[in-house]
Design goal:
The protein has 246 residues and is of the alpha/beta class. 28% of the residues lie in helices and 11% in strands. The protein is globular.
Length: 246
């Protein structure tokens, strides 16, 4: 078995960590709640890649976090303003008046569920308290570039894209004089998209290699894929800028 990177869990020959550099010191604390199935079967999922790229971030794996010591430490820590990344009519956004004032000089603690959509619903069912936290959402209308994976709805985007677009939107928020900014000025969130595009490119290339017989089939459903897929230009260079629809 090929040696794996202990951070991204990819084979050393295909390690993604270099594409997540420089590490992003956003001034936001990101907390990823990962379903056990995601942790077991999707070790190179976008939540873990987000964690690699974001300096102040943590992953907690579990199903019920109500009694998780670390989770409760974080949401009850007075230095943080905890928010759940989840849509809703009352969700805070970068354009909603009063957001910066509500946060004050605290650090945003942004909680994201990292799981399939089915498992995300299970996590919510086991943790109803999550939806009692203040919510955050986007002002823009984004579409995922995750061409390797089909989402249930067009507006659903991956965990790593969520972090990227949220940081970008918070960079537009003006705070009062003397108030701590919601996100550190001048930071560049592009490493999030760089590592994401590299991951997608590697997945598409691996699928084509299996079709051509250069790699063995590893999943029971691999036999279904017999037509090679073009690798879009945006994935050819991991340093190119991402695209979005706003």
């Amino acid at each position: 078995m090929a040696e794996r990177c202990y951070k991204c869990f990819r084979p050393q020959s295909h390690c993604l960590c270099e594409y997540a550099k420089p590490e992003i010191d956003s001034g936001i604390k990101f907390l990823f709640l990962m379903h056990p199935k995601e942790a077991k079967h999707q070790r190179t999922g976008t939540g873990r890649l987000s964690h690699i790229a974001l300096k102040d971030s943590e992953i907690l794996v579990g199903l019920d976090f109500s009694k998780d010591q670390r989770f409760n430490e974080l949401i009850n820590d007075p230095q943080y303003f905890p928010v759940m990344m989840y849509p809703g009519e009352d969700a805070w956004t970068a354009k909603r008046e009063g957001f910066a004032e509500a946060v004050g000089n605290k650090t945003l603690l942004v909680i994201l569920i990292d799981a399939t959509w089915f498992c995300s619903r299970k996590l919510i069912e086991h943790n109803p308290g999550l939806l009692k936290l203040p919510r955050c959402s986007f002002t823009g209308d984004y579409r995922s570039i995750f061409t390797f994976k089909r989402e249930p709805r067009p507006e659903y985007i991956s965990t790593i894209e969520t972090c990227y677009y949220f940081i970008k939107e918070l960079q537009t928020v003006q705070t009062a004089e003397g108030q701590k900014p919601l996100v550190k000025p001048g930071i560049n969130p592009e490493p999030l998209m760089n590592v994401f595009r590299k991951m997608i490119k590697d997945q598409l290339q691996a699928e084509n290699d299996r079709i051509e017989g250069r790699l063995p089939n590893v999943f029971a459903h691999d036999w279904k894929y017999t037509k090679k897929r073009a690798i879009p230009e945006m994935f050819q260079d991991g340093s190119t800028s991402s695209t979005n629809k706003e």
